[in-house]
Amino acid sequence: MTHLPSKTIEEALDRYGSRLYRLALVMLKSPMDAEDVVQETFLRYLDKLGTFREGEHEKAWLLSVCTNLCRDALRARNRHPQVGLDQVPEEGHVPRDRAVWDALMALPEKYRVVLVLQAVEGYQTKEIAKLIGITPSAVKMRLSRGRKLLEESLRKE
Q: Residue 115: is it exposed, middle or buried by C-beta count within 10 angstroms (0-12/13-18/19+)?
């Protein structure tokens, strides 16, 4: 079912805020950094408000911007490493199965992102490829390898 694009920033925040936060949290492993990225994503969205023809285009744009901002944050973090005080997700943001969450968060970023976009957000391989800027075959390889690593990690526990 396609929906119309958001008419207000509040509507967009209600519709996409939790998805963007979840994506940012998986990529950055830090609730505070994830909140910053989501806030920056919506600040950039303000310039685009009212320009989207359909809701799916709006959603894809927001997820793409969020992903790119997360990558920027990760690059900055690698250039200027810091020890975060709060690296554990807050209550209510962690799936019920803590072992799966921990195993997912231990995966390299390139595997975490594709797994979340497919399993949680429901994107198809081609859509994921467009969102993160890689080929569909690379997405398939990352999904396969990510699942295998996740399974191996869960077997060890």
A: buried
The pLDDT tens digits for 65-116 are 999 999 999 888 777 654 343 444 444 444 556 778 788 888 998 998 898 8
Same domain, 34 and 110: no
137-153 per-position pLDDT tens digit: 999 999 999 999 988 88
Do 113 and 51 fall within a single domain?
no
C-alpha pair distances (Å), 11 with each of 24, 38, 42, 59: 20, 15, 11, 12
**Do 72 and 113 sit in the same domain of this protein?**
no
Q: Ramachandran region of residue 116, left (φ > 0), alpha (ψ -120 to 50) or beta?
A: alpha
Task: Round to whole Å and give the CA distance between 90 and 72.
Answer: 23
At 145, which helix (H) or strand (E)?
helix 136-156
